[in-house]
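Tokens as discussed.
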């Protein structure tokens, strides 16, 4: 009878321990599932340490692999694949980006009229005139223009410029492929943007949990550096986009030899009279200045010099008279 009761007691204790173990597993499993998906676990009495490796990795913006590693350390397991797939898709979707530049040297009959026509041509093609420079050489105007036109209208602009020329003296076309540079900058921008988002979340979490001021300032400093790098890359991308959006057509306009006048400009008596009058007035000004200088400076100095010479001569005469008068007395 006693043995049966002991057996039932042992069975009851075993059932109670099994129930407690199952309850503990049930409480522990949701927390592990939350952590595995990259979501912050419920706050514990002792807050976890700052993820310094992730913050330090955000500093290295210079190389794409380092930035990618920093992003991967801050991104959940499912997000890593999405970021990688997005980067590959972005590279695949980027079209070839070319910067075309054409240099032309043209000989035309009337350079000024040709320059004005080229300015109107740039406006008709949806572009603009970036630079205009005109110089007169040997009584003839020579012009240099820099036109910016859409790439798809560059050939049309080139044909129109050649049509107004007597002959083409020089033509040079250059094509620069900036696709790799654009893709690299875009990838770095994506990585830095993702890092910035993670740092913002980390900063908000640090403030919410009231961590140390030093830790918060460290995250804020890293966030500021990342933002400055993002703005610098955005500026470089914008400059590349402007270069790609318009092609450059540099045109030099030279006049034909027949446009040069046979004789130089004729005699201009009015100009000669005005020049002579200016010369006479200049001479009179110089004479007036000399008279003023002589009255104020030379005259007093001359009077002083004359007085000094007169005194010296008088003294010398007295000395001679005294020496002559002394000889008979001896």
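Sequence:
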């Amino acid at each position: 009878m006693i043995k049966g009761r002991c057996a039932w007691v042992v069975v009851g204790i075993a059932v109670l321990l099994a129930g407690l173990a199952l309850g503990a597993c049930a409480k522990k499993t949701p927390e592990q599932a939350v952590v595995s998906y990259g979501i912050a676990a419920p706050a514990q009495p002792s807050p976890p340490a700052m993820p310094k490796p992730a913050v330090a990795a955000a500093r290295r913006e210079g190389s794409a692999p380092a930035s990618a590693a920093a992003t991967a350390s801050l991104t959940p397991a499912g997000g890593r694949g999405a970021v990688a797939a997005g980067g590959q898709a972005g590279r695949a979707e980027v079209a070839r980006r070319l910067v075309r530049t054409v240099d032309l040297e043209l000989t035309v009959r009337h350079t000024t009229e040709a320059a004005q026509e080229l300015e109107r041509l740039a406006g008709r093609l949806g572009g603009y005139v970036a630079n205009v420079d005109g110089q007169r050489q040997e009584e003839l105007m020579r012009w240099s223009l820099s036109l910016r036109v859409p790439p798809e209208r560059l050939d049309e602009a080139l044909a129109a410029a050649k049509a107004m020329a007597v002959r083409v003296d020089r033509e040079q076309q250059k094509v620069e492929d900036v696709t790799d540079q654009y893709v690299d900058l875009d990838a770095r921008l994506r990585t830095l943007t993702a890092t910035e988002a993670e740092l913002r979340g980390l900063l908000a979490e640090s403030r919410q949990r009231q961590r140390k001021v030093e830790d918060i300032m460290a995250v804020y400093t890293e966030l500021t550096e990342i933002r400055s790098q993002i703005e610098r890359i955005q500026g470089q991308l914008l400059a590349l986009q402007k270069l790609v959006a318009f092609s450059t057509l540099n045109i030099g306009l030279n006049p034909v030899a027949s446009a040069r006048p046979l004789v130089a400009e004729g005699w201009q008596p009015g100009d000669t009279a005005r020049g002579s009058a200016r010369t006479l007035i200049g001479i009179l000004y110089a004479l007036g200045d000399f008279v003023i200088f002589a009255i104020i400076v030379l005259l007093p100095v001359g009077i002083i010099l004359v007085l000094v010479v007169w005194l010296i001569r008088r003294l010398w005469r007295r000395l001679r008279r005294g020496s002559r008068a002394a000889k008979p007395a001896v």
